[in-house]
Every structure is written in C-alpha cells, then in structure tokens.
Design a protein that fits this description.
Elements: H1 2-19, H2 21-38, H3 45-58, H4 62-91, H5 94-97, H6 105-134, H7 138-161, H8 168-190
Helix pairs in contact: 1-2, 1-7, 2-6, 3-4, 3-6, 4-6, 6-7, 6-8, 7-8
C-alpha cells in the first residue's frame, strides 16, 4: 500500500497540476490536511482492539472475538459520528482557511464533504484490516485494500479527463474506498 501511495503521488500530482491547476490542487491539499487532522478522533483504538481480538482468538475464545468485534463496530460508529460532527462544525470555518480564491465556495464544500465520506469509510476499512490481521487472515483484506486503491486511482484519472475538475480527487478516492468497504463487509461476514 505504501508503494502504491508513493507511485500515486509521483504520477498523479503532475496530472492534477495539469488538469485542475495549482490553485484547485492547493485547495484539495489544504482540505486533505484538515481532514487528516480531524481523522485522529479514533485515538489509536485500532491497536487496542486488534490486541484484544488477537488475544481472544489465540485462546480460541471465538464467542469473545465475536462480541468484541461487534462492540468495536459500535464504538467505531460513535467515532464516525463524532468525526462527522467535528467535520460539519469545521465546514463553517473553511472560508477562514481558504481565502482569496477563484474556486467557487460551493465547489470547495462539495470537495470537503466528499473527502469527509472518504475518511469515514477509511476509518472502517482500517478497522477491518486490523481485525483481519488479528485473526491471522490478512490476505483477503490486503488484496481488497490494494484493489480499492488502484480503482480509486483509475477513477481519479478518468474523472479528471472527463473534466470533473477538483471533484475528481475525492470522488475517485470515495469510489475506491466504497468498493473496499463493501468487500471488507463481505469478508468479515465469513469470519
């Protein structure tokens, strides 16, 4: 995944600058930074949850694994709601963060909220990836993560070339994360 992210940066940034311009890319980079900061609301719970699930799994206490998994899903739903609430409040301050731009403010808000949805799905995708590792079955989720990332990149490029402008980036990322989320749900049902 790190390799794909590196290649993504090296290949896509020149395309972004050519297709959407430096100003729109700068706005995306700013919003991405803000969302990255806001996404820290999970407080590292993935590590704690993975350790507990791994411990129960090693003891072959499958009922405890199942109960802990579903409790964790509820916790992540609450975390997602908190992230959504903080993101919503932060959206009222975007005009202070992004000033003097030719990009329409309603477009900036659309980009922002698509980014919020992408980050919400990633909260769960990271959780599912951690659980799969705790259950010693990481391959399926890893393949899904890679596939989702590649599909996201392809979606971004296609959307850029059909002139979706700066919306291409969060929309493409959202497409890839959505695919990964649905596939992760299907895999988690098997476990």
């Amino acid at each position: 995944l790190v390799f794909i992210t590196l290649v993504e940066g090296l290949v896509l940034i020149p395309i972004y600058l050519t297709k959407i311009g430096a100003e729109s890319f700068g706005i995306w980079a700013t919003l991405l930074s803000l969302l990255t900061i806001l996404s820290t609301v999970n407080f590292g719970l993935n590590n704690v949850i993975n350790q507990k699930i791994s411990s129960y799994y090693a003891k072959r206490n499958f009922l405890a694994v199942k109960e802990y998994f579903f409790s964790s899903v509820l916790i992540f739903m609450v975390i997602s709601f908190i992230f959504l609430a903080i993101s919503f409040v932060a959206s009222y301050q975007l005009d202070l963060l992004i000033t003097k731009t030719d990009v329409a403010y309603d477009l900036i808000l659309k980009v922002y909220f698509l980014g919020v949805l992408f980050f919400l799905l990633n909260i769960f995708n990271d959780f599912f990836r951690g659980v799969a590792q705790a259950l010693l079955k990481p391959l399926g989720v890893l393949v899904i993560s890679i596939t989702g990332k590649v599909l996201g990149i392809i979606s971004i490029v296609v959307l850029l070339f059909v002139n979706f402008d700066v919306l291409s980036i969060p929309l493409g990322l959202l497409i890839g994360a959505s695919l990964a989320f649905v596939c992760n749900l299907l895999i988690m049902q098997k476990h």
